[in-house]
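assembly run, all chains below
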Amino acid sequence: MGLIDNINKLFDHRIRLGIMSILMVNEEVDFNRLKELLDVTDGNLASHTKTLEKAEYIKIEKSFIGKKPNTRYKATPGGKMAFKKHIEALEQLIKKQ
Amino acid sequence: MESKKYLEDISQIKDLMNRSSRFISLSGLSGILAGTYAIVGALVAYLYLIPQQESYVTLHSWNFRMIMGILVAVAILSLVTAYLLTSKKAKKNNEKVWDETTKRLLINFLIPLATGGIYILIKLNSQHYGLTASLMLIFYGLALVNASKYTIGKVRYLGYLQIVLGLICAAMPGYGFWFWVLGFGLLHIIYGSLIYFKEEKA
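ok done. output:
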């Protein structure tokens, strides 16, 4: 049961897992790029990024390019740590079974 | 049952990481080759084209055109090499070369680079030759830093080094040629080798 404890509930969801995977290897990604890579709707993506922001795993930066709003996402150091732990836990669980 | 879900999670993580930042993985070998082209080009220029002391390269002279020709050839060869190595790799992994990542990478790389190139040409036209090498290094460095947002962080450090080298070069007039060789030749080869051996291990 010790192993299961390391599985992060926040990452136990396809879209949130995807957002973190992308932010682990890209310094900064904007909303449209995330949407395109993950193939999700606007509302869906916005609600999951908000959840990750609340946990302080990602940072959201809003700005304007001309009149268009532009939202960019970054993983925080804490978020990266948590995600690495989660991956390790996944690997451990797979090995165990 | 659970195990299958975790496996799916892991493969999704891998897939997204690759799709969103694939570009970095090509750059080892293309870095080494780009550095080699630059050094060969510089060698040719040094041996045959750079005038001895007391004489100058002027804008419409034969020497100047040849040097520009070499620069353009080095740049095109490097780009073609990078493109060929990427598409080879992409084919092997069944990926498209022209996806959003490559497009963004290229656009972000080209904006500072083209700005610098045009700026240098304008300066050359008004007989300001002195800072050419420094400006090339600085704008190339900025291009790398700008493009690095779309790759894993390492290209950024190559960019920083090129910028620093360009600034030192600006402070030491007369050594532009050597700084150019150091930046475009040596740094590329060192950077490329580091990435290449890291890839081999992975």
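Chain B touches chain A through 21 residues (CB under 8 Å).

The helical segments of chain B are 2-21, 27-49, 62-92, 100-125, 132-147, 154-171, 176-201.

not gonna interpret more than that til we talk
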